[in-house]
Amino acid sequence: MSLVTSLLLPRQQQLNRLFHIMVVFAVLGPTLGVPGPGFKVTFFRVTFFLLVAGLIVRWVNKHSMQSFHMYHIRWHIAFFAFWTLYAAVSLTWAGHLGYGVRYTVFLVTMLLLTLSFPFFVKHGRNMEQTSRILFWVFFVLVVFGLIESLTFWHLPSSRYYMNPNAPNPTSFFKNQNDFATSITLGLPFVVTALYMLPMRRKTRWLIYSTGIIALCCLLMTGSRSNSGFALPLAGMAWMVLIPFTVERRKLTRKNLLKGVGLLVLAVLVVNLLTSTLLSQQARDKLGTTLGVIQDLQGSWQLPEQDPAAGEESPASGDQSINIRKALIINGLLHLHRSHYLGVGAGNIEYYMAGDPGVGGKTNMHNWWVEILVNFGVLIFTLYMFLYFWLLVRLWKLADRKNAAVLPPVIRWGATACLISLIGYFFGGMSPSTAIHFTPMWVVYGFALTVVAVGTRQLKKGTNHDPA
User: Fold this and answer.
1) 114-134 burial, b for 16+ CB within 10 Å, e for fewer?
2) Which of 6, 121, 137, 315 would staple 294 via disulfide (CB 3.0–4.6 Å)?
3) Tens digit of each residue's pLDDT (9 = 90 or more) over 37-96
4) O-antigen ligase-related domain location, by residue (predicted)?
């Protein structure tokens, strides 16, 4: 009888547990699943739909979602609802309905995944629990990436599966760029936790070692956009934030010297490991990072032929930058033809097929342009406005002036999310598409959680974590 009751009216504790399981599978889901005819039933999808079903059952029985604690992010929720509606309406002018429906399903799933964080993580202690789970997921990702670099053994989800000669680690992702982007998204949480959260010495060394492994994996992916652009941008944001986010009493000469020493030690260890593990292919690719800038400064005219067949060698050593430039140019042309309403959810892949200069690629390989071209100027403007507003709100919560009011976990979360989302300005230009790139949506959801919890507690004016 109790089993029937728990199925008909799931307890909040059971739903919270299911939420955390879903979060784990959200990142590991591409690998963990059961292959079916033409599709794969991943554990993420299973837990996601079980969680949605459980919430619907509770809503039907209790006639309430108990979501008032999300009041401070109501404009983000309203935008997500409007974005979903716009995506559905855009199907009426989409050139390929199948692409549009598929993309809209991805969009709804990812937006719900994002909102599940502020919905379930209501207090600082919930945030601590969720943070620990996310850390262990990140730990598994980078440790397996290191093992992959040593053994060249790739998971079935990897593009290099059954290819023992492929040196680039992909971990639980399809390609090395996705893995690299997940690292640049996660590193700010690891680095800032070392000095913003109270913890035991053993835990601190575990987190420090995880950061070193993550940096090694990042370099071994050979991702220039993440290693050469996203990571330095996040690093600069981190350095700028230190005097504003660390209490003045902690900014002593001893602590600063200790921090510099640990940073130098990390660089030396990473250099030692990568000098042995870094493949020549990755070395050559990372060595052409400056060439990427030269390629970007070159002509933005569409070539008359496919760049892959071009005679002139680009400064970066390959044609990927020229192809990405062609994708952007063609995408903007399609946006113009759509009267700036967007080509329709997911339909840029349909219109891009056969366009000049794209080398057979159809995905935009740029999250920001993907939103603009698929959904038009209106959605893009609202998305970017709320993105920057989120950064401003995170900055205010991270400010050391609030140290007496906000607990360390909230200020740490605000600082880490701020750095991570700033770095993603370049990181979002690495994956082929981010519509189903779960690490980005997880960080976005965690940032909304920090704002919802932190703003509510800041208004209460107490460091005490409310029940």
Assistant:
1) bbbbbbbbbbbebbbebbeeb
2) 315
3) 666 678 898 899 999 998 888 888 876 677 788 999 999 999 999 999 999 999 999 999
4) 212-383
Residue after which a domain boundary falls, among 51, 66, 81:
66
pLDDT at residue number 43: 86
d(CA 231, CA 191): 12
On whether residue 301 sits in a domain, the answer given is no
Domain boundary among 32, 66, 100: 66
Same domain, 42 and 79: no
Let me know whether 109 and 243 are in one domain.
Answer: yes
Residue 323 belongs to a domain: no
80 and 57 in one domain?
no
- Please give the pLDDT value at position 13: 81
Residue pair 369/376 in contact (Cβ under 8 Å)? The answer is: no
pTM score over 0.70: yes
Q: What are phi and psi of 430, to 5 degrees?
A: -100, -50
CB atoms within 10 A of CB 411: 25
With CA atoms as reference, report the closest residue to 124 among 371, 450, 388. 450
CA 23-87-54 angle, to 5 degrees, is 35
> Quick one: tokens of 79?
């935008």
Which residue in the block uniquely carries the two structure tokens 């070392």? Answer: 194
Query: According to the model, what pLDDT value does residue 268 have?
Result: 93
Below-70 pLDDT ranges, the chain: 1-10, 30-33, 35-40, 63-64, 280, 282-319, 462-467
Question: The tokens of 309 are what?
Answer: 């067949």
What b/e string do you get for 19-43 counting C-beta neighbours within 10 Å, with b at 16 or more?
bbbbbbbbbbbbbbbeeeeeeeebb
How high is the pLDDT of residue 273? 85
Domain interval for residue 235: 72-280+377-463
Residue 297: per-residue pLDDT: 54
Structure letter (DSSP) for residue 287: T
Question: Which element (helix H / strand E) includes 42?
Answer: strand 39-42
Confidence (pLDDT) at 386: 97
In this structure, are 83 and 159 located in the same domain?
yes
User: How far apart, in whole angstroms, are the C-alpha atoms of residue 293 and residue 298?
Assistant: 9
Q: What is the tally of structural domains in the chain?
A: 2
Rounded Cα gap, residues 324 and 229, in angstroms: 16
Using CA atoms, how far apart are residues 295 and 460, in angstroms rounded to an integer?
Answer: 52
Q: Are residues 417 and 398 in the same domain?
A: yes
Assess whether 185 and 210 both reside in one domain: yes
DSSP 8-state code for residue 303: P
